[in-house]
């Protein structure tokens, strides 16, 4: 492949990201119902025919935007859990909270569309549930691998504990955004809450 051809292909990939960035901003600002293909094309500095040819109709563009944000978030979670898989509980709690709060800070539009935004049909809502379930499953697996750090005998409680941790993270993150708070400070608070929950977890079997 010639250098010129390679540069051309790289340019097309970069351009598609630009188109999706423009669409993300328009959907976030206007909402799905009010957003128009013309608005996205104007924001991206291109034409409606080009947008249709590259990304499809409005619903297809919206889904492409949300799917991209979901994949970015999933990758950040996977990377964080891999980095924290052998760390002490306090450090793991901090690293485990990092992807969500970083995503809310660095990709605020994507965060709002994926977790809080307007939906079109059932697909984005289904995708949002899939993302949350995927993170919960990853955390469940990590908890089961780290029984010695989190307490022995968790058994079937591991998935419930993971779901609680993910729920706390989302609630703290959304509350902070709604009240204009400091996401970094909120991340540390959520991590400490989760760490203390692990330390104080009663893993004994309930009394009959």
Automatic annotation (TrEMBL):
InterPro entries: Homeodomain-like_sf, HTH-type_TetR-like_transc_reg, HTH_TetR. Signal peptide: none annotated. It comes from the Bacteria. Residues 36-55 bind DNA. Keywords: DNA-binding, Transcription, Transcription regulation. Residues 13-73 form the HTH tetR-type domain. This is TetR/AcrR family transcriptional regulator. It comes from Nonomuraea composti. The lineage of its organism: Bacteria, Bacillati, Actinomycetota, Actinomycetes, Streptosporangiales.
